[in-house]
Write a structure and sequence with these properties.
By secondary structure, the protein is an alpha+beta fold. Strands 3, 4, 5, 6, 7, 8, 9, 10, 11, 12, 13, 14 and 15 form a 13-stranded antiparallel β-sheet that branches. It starts with a strand and ends in a 10-residue tail after the last strand.
Length: 635
């Protein structure tokens, strides 16, 4: 295993192979990664008193949601920011990077099943690969919230993070986003993915540290760093550049982050957000208003000396004074707080030209929203380190914003559905253009309903999914087709068509039973109960109501039998004939007697009959049917 030591020279930082036996030369002391220790439970120690935790959250369909849903998500995001006081630092990191191409392509491979349709599976796989190349499925977008606190020891940090993390997960749940707190290995894997943009595999186990004497940084660092240029840096074979977003727009919309991340290049965006104490924020705004008023008085004095109208003020002064008063009103009367935010953008590319093109595209996005993307000259190292999802901010370029102004940078775009295993292809995401692969058996609700106007392709969609299930999985496919629309598909796939109708020569055997018919109860008892209920329904349309109305008035069992026997004898000529002549061993051409025992009769008679009738046969009526003789049906 190659081990790297970081040594700083005058103009750049370089790594060289070296066993980290000397702690003075170790990554822990001189490394670029600004943390000291990563614990297995996900707690990270940045320095003597600073600790951080990382929460990963998934995307939600914000861009496709209605106005009311978007407002609800925005308000929940504001509540999450307001819930963190000035002692808690927040870093919102959104990473767009490549994944391992070989592993990614395996997720769309359709395995051969050794039948006549393997050629179709090969063609289907090639079609999916083509769709993969057209979309951005080679890129993965992940979102993280890193929380930072001050604590004297690890026990205090764990106790405080247990509450803070739980509250943050609750806020994400209110927004409809799935979220989880990362453990130490998962966090290291995220850092490894950022430092290895091409998607190299991450190999690490906590058991490897003690025997090797290595630090966790040794398993995530790239081959080299170089920060010798003013406007870019080198990370392994990659070129990178760190910039910050200068927010000059009077108003922003919620598409800023979505437009920045809408790219097929590696980019990660970090927003360092820290709340100000409310009283201190109000005092600061009041001081600014006082300064503006003083400037206003000075301008009026100059105008009076020079003979101008004192009501004519510089436009910037009048604008700033009005904005300051609006901010003070929001802080005092609305649910708004003041935050200090640093907006960092890091682009990574294979070549310098590609890097410059990516930065130019990001700059055009910023200009579209009346902002400016400014390169961090001579601060590339600080900008890169601050953009990592660790909670460290070494770039002291901050912008004061209220809660709603911070929350306008909505981190949600569109939820992607790209599952592995026996996932089926359902089309392209309308927002991102990525493939939609889903396995119904992995979803919370596997059921589906196809809705559409006439001629919109509902039947075609169902047939396409049937074909997908047939090619990708080994599941059984059962189609209830009253219109005989799917007969050609079933015949083409080598299936079996069973026609069931009053004139059909094929029948369903209701008495068919296997030994695994039931796991808990007696299979014979369940089947007998079902068969008895079926007989009851065929004897009379409302047999239960008939028995409830007439049985309490009967005094003797023979009177009960006399009432029921005409119903039984009349069923041979009625439309409800119980025709099951497909049974094996049926004696066609002659009648056989079938003694029937009615069960569960105690729940439909008067209470004085219940104990007596529960264990007695109601009647011994004989039903004439084309069946072989069955001695009895046991409960």
């Amino acid at each position: 295993m190659a081990v790297f030591r970081i040594e700083k020279t005058r103009d750049y930082t370089v790594m060289s192979n070296h066993h980290l036996r000397n702690t003075a030369l170790s990554l822990k002391a001189k490394g670029l990664l600004p943390f000291r220790q990563m614990y297995p439970d996900g707690l990270c120690r940045l320095d003597d008193t600073t600790w951080s935790r990382c929460i990963e959250f998934e995307d939600v369909n914000y861009q496709l949601a209605g106005q009311d849903d978007q407002t609800a998500i925005f308000e929940a995001l504001c509540d999450m920011y307001n819930a963190h006081d000035a002692s808690i630092g927040m870093e919102l990191t959104l990473i767009c990077r490549k994944v391992n191409r070989a592993d990614f392509r395996k997720r769309i491979e359709i395995a051969a099943q050794g039948d006549a349709f393997d050629g179709v599976r090969v063609l289907y796989t090639e079609m999916l690969r083509t769709q993969l190349e057209h979309g951005n499925n080679g890129m993965v977008k992940t979102k993280f919230l890193v929380l930072t606190i001050e604590a004297g020891d690890i026990r205090t940090a764990r106790a405080r993070f247990s509450r803070i993390t739980l509250d943050a997960l609750g806020h994400f749940k209110a927004m409809g986003a799935l979220a989880k707190a990362l453990d130490g290995r998962e966090w290291l894997e995220v850092l490894h993915g950022v430092l290895h943009p091409d998607g190299e595999r991450f190999s690490f186990a906590w058991e490897w540290l003690a025997p090797s004497g290595l630090h966790v940084k040794d398993f995530i660092v790239p081959s080299s760093f170089r920060f010798g240029e003013a406007r870019r840096f080198r990370m392994g074979a990659k070129y990178g550049a760190a910039s910050f977003l200068q927010i000059t727009a009077p108003e922003l919309n919620d598409r800023v982050l979505a437009d920045l991340l809408d790219t097929d290049s590696s980019i990660f965006v970090s927003l360092h957000i820290r709340s100000m104490d409310q009283n201190e924020a109000i005092k600061t705004v009041k001081r600014k208003i006082t300064d503006l008023d003083s400037m206003k008085i000075d301008a009026q004095k100059r105008a009076a000396r020079e003979g101008f109208d004192i009501d004519i003020l510089p436009s910037d002064l009048a604008t700033y004074a009005g904005e300051a008063k609006n901010i003070l009103r929001d802080l005092q009367s609305r649910n708004e707080r003041m935050f200090l935010m640093t907006f960092l953008v890091v682009n990574v590319a294979d070549t310098r030209q590609k890097l410059e093109n990516d930065i130019l595209r990001a700059s055009s996005v910023a200009q579209k929203h009346n902002c400016h993307l400014v390169r961090l000259d001579f601060q590339q190292e600080q900008g890169f380190v601050s953009a990592l999802p660790l909670g460290v901010n070494q770039v002291k370029i901050q912008r004061g914003l209220t809660t709603s102004s911070v929350a306008i940078f909505v981190p949600f775009i569109s939820q992607e559905l790209f599952q592995g295993g026996e996932a089926l292809y359902y089309g392209l995401n309308a927002t991102s253009g990525n493939m939609i692969l889903a396995d119904r058996k992995q979803l919370k609700t596997p059921n589906g309903l196809i809705l559409g106007t006439p001629g919109s392709g509902k039947s075609f969609s169902a047939k396409r999914e049937i074909l997908n299930v047939f090619l990708v999985t080994k599941d059984d496919i059962i189609i209830c087709d009253p219109e005989a629309e799917y007969f050609p598909v079933v015949h083409r796939l080598g299936g079996q068509v069973i026609k069931i109708s009053p004139t059909s020569s094929q029948y369903v055997n209701p008495m068919d039973m296997s030994l695994n018919y039931s796991e808990d109860d007696s299979p014979l008892a369940l089947k007998s109960d079902f068969t008895a209920q079926d007989f009851l329904r065929k004897l009379h349309p409302d047999l239960m109501g008939f028995l409830r109305r007439h049985l309490p008035r009967l005094k003797r069992l023979d009177q009960m039998a006399a009432q029921v026997r005409p119903l039984v004898n009349s069923m041979a000529a009625g439309p409800g004939k119980f025709n099951v002549r497909c049974f094996g061993g049926a004696a066609i051409g002659r009648y056989q007697q079938l003694p029937v025992r009615f069960f569960g009769i105690a729940d439909i008679v008067d209470g004085r009959f219940q104990r007596r009738l529960d264990r007695m046969r109601l009647c011994n009526c004989h039903i004439w049917s084309c069946l072989s003789r069955i001695s009895s049906i046991s409960a």
